[in-house]
Amino acid sequence: xxxxxxxxxxxxxxxxxxxxEIVSYLTMDDDLEFFSIDEWYKIDSLNYFQIxxxxxxxxxxxxxxxxxxxxxxxxxxxxxxxENPTFYLLKDKINVSVAILFGLGVVQILRxxxxxxxxxxxxxxxxxxxxxxxxxxDEMLKLKLYFQYISPIGYHDQGIEYLLNNNWNNAKFxxxxxxxxxxxxFKEIFDTTKQRKEVIEVINASxxxxxxxxxxxxxxxxxxxxxxxxxxxxxxxxxxxGCYQQDTTKKNSPYxxxxxxxxxxxxxxxxxxxxxxxxxxxxxxxxxxxxxxxLQKWSQIGMHDNLSGLDADxxxxxxxxx
Length: 322
What we know:
Strand order of the largest sheet: 2-7-8
Strand content: 5-15%
Distance between the termini: 17 Å
Number of helices: 14
Order of helices and strands: EEEEHHHEEHEEHHHHEHHEEHHHH
Number of strands: 11
């Protein structure tokens, strides 16, 4: 989530109308469902406020702008001002309509180093002394919902997916408007994410090398057992059906064996199997990726020239950092 946020500003003590102005506006349809004026009128209110010279306050300026537009809604009002808000300066432009779906609002800073910047805030913050934890938790969830909604491809929040799929009765209260409609949209997002993952897995599987050579085998054995030798790697390869030496006339010519059979051979060893299952490795592509990260990790600390003797089981704990 933090990759979307440029800065987090504690706005306690800042005054609406002096330090910032609320620039997210709500309206309702006949079914009393909330919409942003951007969605209702098909406009870009933030772009307007970015370039307009405001003579009165922002709300009056917006009402003038919308006065002659159709369809005229039941009412227009800014999202609520709250005490002790936290402002979030995002790296990308804010989508006001999506923010309102989750009870978030938008402010424009009027003075100081952030003058003119637009920021998100939680417009449904309760600010009760006995609900501080609830406020903080709800605010984080609303932000996560917002980022997931606007980034259906580049972002996958598994916690949000679990919440919406398994605890809808509580999750729906995080939605400020049209919960069933938004839930359907999230289902489409997560279904698409699942399909993309399946495609990527197929691509990865198709990219698995057909053959494993003796040098690769040495590195794999070193990764799995913590130590190995190149002679042992060659011996293990020669046990595998289909193994051959590239040039039988040269003593140091590398050996090759089919990658799928190499993995099966490794898996059939109970000690190896425990190691692989602990890391959820079920095919050669995954094993090669883990082993590559292992090499990179030790390379970073200057041990890439002497991998033998490393404690693979000890490395398990470091691997959890990835």
